[in-house]
Amino acid sequence: MLEMVTGIDGLNPRATPRALNENVAPAGQAGDLRPGVDLLHGYVPIAELKEIGRASPSDAFQSVVWAAVHGDPSLPGRLFLNEAARIEADQIVAGLPASQQAQFDTPEKLAALYVNAKLDGIDTLEIIGVKLLDPETAEISVLSGEAGLNPSTFSMQATPTGWRLKISPGKLSNFQNFLRAQAG
User: Fold this and answer.
1) How far apart are CA 138 and CA 4, in angstroms?
2) Can you tell me the mean pLDDT for 35-61?
């Protein structure tokens, strides 16, 4: 089920159509799902996050962060790139030195490096809102204890295998300078 949770517009975050830490995998997705950490009620150290599947936008977000923090090879498969983002990623990889190009045989692998870089220096997170935009798109507002009071918004995409973190065009092009510096 989709969840509509927000602390921004006054809805009670506990009044959701499903339990926040429900231990359910979407159809076709098995795995070692463990009860999650409640990111909706205070800052949580990202080292404590768990792999809890993709049944809801917040579950998928927690699982993406878990995969990034633990270096799990499933991270690229937890990301969604539309056609424009895939083209942008391919163009970025084509402009990299050959030694770096080999690391990014799929656009999602480049996006996974982007996610890891965005989490660098982040120790705690709190989800302050989940807004369902349509049946296939949700936005998650997240605070980091290290970044202050300015929330970051992440787009989540529903797919046949569950929710995924959506990497939109433009985000990767901003990341290109970081990659060039790494190559230098």
Assistant:
1) 9
2) 84
